[in-house]
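Feature request, filed as a ticket because there's no other form

It would be nice if the structure record came with a short human-readable summary line next to the tokens. Right now we just get the raw output. Example of a typical job, pasted below so the devs can see what we mean:
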Amino acid sequence: MKFPSPFINNNSARMPLTILGIIMVIMTIAFTTHIDKMDREMAESLNSENTVNTVDNAYMYACADLARIINYAGMAAMKEMGETPVIVIEPTSEYNLSTNGNCNISDFNLNRAKGMIRYVMNRFIQTNYMYNSFDYRDVAVNVEPLTDWKEINIIPIYMGLDREIKPGLGNNTIDELMPDETYVTYWRVQVPVNLSIVDLETDEILYHEDMVLGNLITCRYPLLEQITYEYEDRLTSTGPLMMETTALAQGFTMGRGYFQYLFPGGPDNIISNELLAFIVNGALMVDQGFVFNSVDSNSILEYVMESKRLIYDEKDVDMGQVYMGIELNNDSFEIDPQADAAHSTGDFENATAALEEGLHFDYNATPIMEFMNNDSLVGGSKVNNMIRSIIPQVYSASLATGVTRDTTLEPGEHDGYEENYNIAEWGEPDSMEQIDTLVRDEYVPGNLYGEVWRVIWSREHVWRHAYEVEYACMKPAPAPVNFYWDTCYRTEYDYMTTIDVRVDIVNISLEAKENSFAFVHLDHVGFDLSTMNDVNDAFTSRGVEYNNYFVDPNLEEAYLQYKNEVYDQNKLVYIKDMGLNGVVELRSYSPDPPEWLYDEVRLIVDDITQQIRNDVHLDREINNKNYPLPGEIMNATAVDLTAKIKANQTRYVDKGAYFDGGRYLSASGKVISLVREWYVDEVLYQVDKQYGGAGRKIEEEIDNEFGGIGDVVREAQQISAKLLGGLMRFPLGVTMVAEHVMENGTHYEKDEMAYWDENVTLMVDMEPDFLRHDVFYDPDKDEWIDAVMGVDGKYVADPKLNPSPRVFIPLALQNINAFAEASTLRNGGLPVLPPTPSTAWILTTNFWTIRVKGTIDELMIIDADNECHPNPMFGHEAQVYSRKLDREIYDPATDSFIGDNMPMTFEFTTGTLIFVPAGLKGVGDKRGEGTNEKSIGAINEGWI
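Raw output as currently delivered:
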């Protein structure tokens, strides 16, 4: 690995020997206990004290030597496995113990380690512990070779890794990006041993034991294996790499998009594949830093050089100057994604200002009110329609004529003439005179005008008196007489004519039955405003003053019309109608409202609109950083605006100016008051409805544009806001602290014997150092080779440069601006919500779908604190774990093919979004400037 000297300045990366001391203490206790047992057994069979001591010593030396060999065998296995890990398993390998052929890769490598340990130990045993080769004084220790690697047991030792480099700001870490804490860091290996001690003179077996020897392998291969697996898992389609790429791309989208929106001469393309390659490489290194607390040093150098060329537009970048100019802070190179985004525009100051302004766009109630007052909509504006609905309701009345009569009937004198014989018709009144007027009632229903009349009628009334008269008469009789005389009687009458007189006291009134019935539904509070008969002195015109002085006729026209056309015309008829007592002629009227009223109401609505414009502004804390998801920020906007409008609602409605003592001061005042009350309520309702609807619309578009991964993109947006809050670090071997923990991650207390901690410093070596999207990489030559188009329309490495068969494109990229072509806006974008009779244009949004596929040809992780492997020439070597293309890995123990090592690959789809205030400018990639930009790798992949 090539490390520039300025990057390496840490001499603390040395493994502490605490663990070895603990091991020795444990081994000593075990050996002492076992030797005590052996002494008792040997004392029974041997009489010579010297012989016993010799056997004891030989046993102890052999056990210690074998335990040491277990460690060396384990380290030899780990060295081999780290340099040539098996990623693709050979199913027929003896290390695959699964019955279905789907052996877990970790289990396979564990079995491989056991096989290697058996192989190395048997070589040592055959050389040193067979045929009396290990002799001590007059005895020899013999050990039988291990027969089956399956009998070897490996016990994992767990440690918790405390990293200095953590995703997030300060103690506010981003849990979704946090690597694991607990790892298998060491292995303790237990090996079954068949040991015997023989007398060299007699060849007699003095002692025999089947025992299990164990030792901790002082190499951190398990940590490197697990942490590299973890890094690979984080490169998957929905893993942290995708989220970190989204975060960095989102930073560029906002930085460049707001600059394009707010300043002339902004970038034509918000996201290009050149930028995207830079972003993906940055995300790869950011995640390396999170996982390993280290980034490949040459990758940092390449990243800085690319930023000079691409971000800072430096034409001739000198590697030496860049190399010498790199400054490390706490062993890390720091980047500011938002500053890079601003610099990429070519106008850092304005771009920075645009980003600041863009993060605090004042999404307020103005578009809502403009929508409500938009007269160009089909059918007219919502406000106009409501005004035109309320005015005729208030300027309406129901009027009737009321007749009540008090009748006095005075019959003529007719003493002695008791029987009614004939009554003449009353005919026309003898006299009619108005004797009084009625006072106008204050409230409705009530009398508006009335008169009291006395009406007198007279008629002839004939009475008679009946009496009997006697006279002689013949009556029939039986024959032969035939008749006889008798006395008969008859009734006769006396007649008398008198004059009856009727006097009616008639109250005839013009009654107001109902006025100004108005029904208004208030959507926000959710109830109906129903009001009637509450205009003070509604049928009399009066002067009013609003923006100017006016005369409000109120409902006087209805009164006059009814009085002239109905009341006065029918008054005498109804007075003379002797049978009429009640209400007649109920009529409804809609008098013409004053001509000035509509314009005056509009002026007052405009005044409220201006007040809300001046008063209600979005809290600056409600921005894309704090609310990265469209639904969240739109809902927060609705809540904030609603609270601020409600705080001033009484002032906006100003009901006291038009209403007093439970009654409106005039009909026009009632119209204005009702419109004001409705307007403020409707603004509140539409703020909640439209901003909430805008958030839902964008969320729907996210699901449409990122089919199947909408939730993942939303999660990435949330993380991006946290990740872009400050500087990001590319650490170079920052030391971590590992503490011994239980399997579940529980830490031991520092005073417990099982506790120890140690430093872990990892180094990363990545090839190629920087993944490029526009050329081929030749791993055999470590060179970049230009691409040329082949006959099939796909790209190949330029054959003139003699590429090796292993050339490949490290990075395939595609970015698509979703609304560039279909949008009618200048720079593109989707109106949200598009203006219709029921929706307001709240804001404009745009999306970029990003697709990435990449290959890291080689990734090597070096344990710089664990130089554990003896090297005859250089003393010791560090443990490594290497991922690269290495086919046909053979097992030294069996000389059999066990599988392949493979490079790391990654592929994911994500996206970025932006939204700006409503307007014809929009934001997005300009048409014809790469709205569907595909790299050569994407073309070769056949991406549409």
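Something like this underneath would help us a lot:
Confidence is low (pLDDT under 50) at residues 1-29, 42-48.
The radius of gyration is 52 Å.
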